[in-house]
Amino acid sequence: MNITIEDIVREAAPELKVVTIEADVTNAATSPELRDELLRLGENIKATYRLDEINKRPGIAATRKAYKALGKEPNRYRPSSEALCRRIVKDMGLYFINNLVDLINVVSIASGYSIGGFDADKIEGDTLSLGAGREGEPFEAIGRGILNIAHMPVYRDAIGGIGTPTSDNERTKIDLDTRRLLMCINIYGEEMLADDTIELALRLLSQYCDARNIIVKSYWASGVF
User: Where does the B3/B4 tRNA-binding domain lie (predicted)?
Assistant: First the structure.
């Protein structure tokens, strides 16, 4: 899978770096060890941030800045990393879905980056384009119905939108039958070092999902490598 970044996103977020991780995986219900890892991370977040400090984390603040540059109000459509951390700090708890989804949430919470997680076998074509959502563009968000993605960064395959920093699409969502994962780590501004984020993701994928045939790629909005 390859990523192309459209000019509208390059101009709005010139510091954007996208890291993709593809892997063959074996998914399962959330393991007790991963559940504990996520809960420990949540306790650390609660001990570190007040509610009004969450959106000032560098990774989250940079994502919000990109939303505003594209014309989207981030307080109405929060990036997923921000929404997860707010749930933790407000003591609302987290959902436990399955190993793949929950390990992606660990990486997102730890790094401050919103991360797209897709069943690669459900993606149409071998290239995703990262552009801006259009008015009235259809998008069925996972667990929340139709989402207004106008002026929001959006990954599209040959059929249409599959992921935004706020939510991914039902059409390509991860489930227990997922055998090939595509993870898109959206670094609009650096918080956790990219190499450390990759290392964390690979450790979790290996530990909880028997990841193999792994491919890691990086893309820069600036075009500078």
Answer: 61-210
